[in-house]
Amino acid sequence: MEHFLNAQHCLTIAAAFIAIVAACATLINIANSKADSLATRYREATKEYRDATKSQNSQRATQLQKQIELFVKRTRQVSWAQRHLFFTIGIFIASIAVFIGLALYLVYFNITDETAHVVARVPIIVIGVFVAVGTFCMFVAIILQYLELGDAARTFDIETKDCRVRAQD
């Protein structure tokens, strides 16, 4: 088998994983910002809800209750997205470590290209499983973020419905 895997291949693949980890970190940053924003708006809505129920403004209390229900759902989605992204980063970092370790092993023990495929078979299978699981988790996180955007639009609609100009019939 010609040039199945050598140290240069391992390091190049590790560099590609580093780029993927950077993309995950960007998504985590977005999710963290979204979580902070949601927490602030959630606290504001609950405070206003308490005030509305004390003043017996039932229409506003009902509107706020709908918003709070969506905030609960949105917070849960963002939290799960964050967890999936952190798990994805962990799996991809483990893959990077395996590839770098494999490269160092091949170089340090001067493993020839002809025998590298025997040495690298199990680590490559492990990395393949890591990539499949990590990709799935990243996909789930993206779906959760996408669903959260829909809930954000519904929350915005509830927040602004009474303030918008009504179209003439």
Q: Write down the secondary-structure element order.
A: HHH
Number of helices: 3
Summarize the main sheet.
none
Radius of gyration from CA coordinates: 25 Å
Q: How far apart lie the N and C ends?
A: 76 Å
The beta-strand count equals 0
Structural domains: how many: 1
Class from secondary-structure proportions: mainly alpha
How much is the average pLDDT?
84
Descriptive notes:
- The radius of gyration is 25 Å and the shape is rod-shaped.
- Helix 1 (7-54) packs antiparallel against helix 2 (58-108) and helix 2 (58-108) packs antiparallel against helix 3 (113-160).
- The chain starts with 6 loop residues before the first helix and ends in a 9-residue tail after the last helix.
- The chain has helices spanning 7-54, 58-108, 113-160.
- With 169 residues, the chain is mainly α.
- The mean pLDDT is 84.
- It is 87% helix and 0% strand.
- It contains 3 helices and no strands.
- The chain has one domain.
Tag the structure with descriptive keywords:
single chain; 169 residues; mainly alpha; 3 helices; 0% strand
